[in-house]
Amino acid sequence: MKNFLFVMRQPPFQGSRIRESMDMIMTVAAFDQCVKILFLDDGVFLLKSNQNPDNPDLKTSTPLFAALELYDVEELWVEGESLAERGLDPSHLILPVRTLGRTEIAFFLAKADIVVNC
Predict the structure, then answer these.
(1) What's the rounded Cα separation, in Å, for the pair 105 and 102?
(2) N or C end of the chain: which has fewer CB within 10 A?
(3) pLDDT single digits (tens) 56-82
(4) SS3 of 78, please?
């Protein structure tokens, strides 16, 4: 079994990139690999509750994140500084997360066998 770490840095509603990343995450998890997701920078907005895109052609990614539990993806991490810089805290998010400090990120990345920047 490999340890996969998916790093989500992009804000929501930026085309199909998030959906494609979520498809990749769920596919890896379906093959019983260890999957962790780290939300950095504007990627923390992906988990913000009560989001509605301005463009009706874009859909919220909330149902995709809710489906992670079905794939046993339970390790969701956020960088605390990314949250604070954007005026958010864990209570504003749709799923429970664990928080890392900016100084811990390099060590966290080094523990993964495979890092995928989404």
Answers:
(1) 6
(2) N
(3) 555 667 778 888 989 999 999 999 999
(4) strand
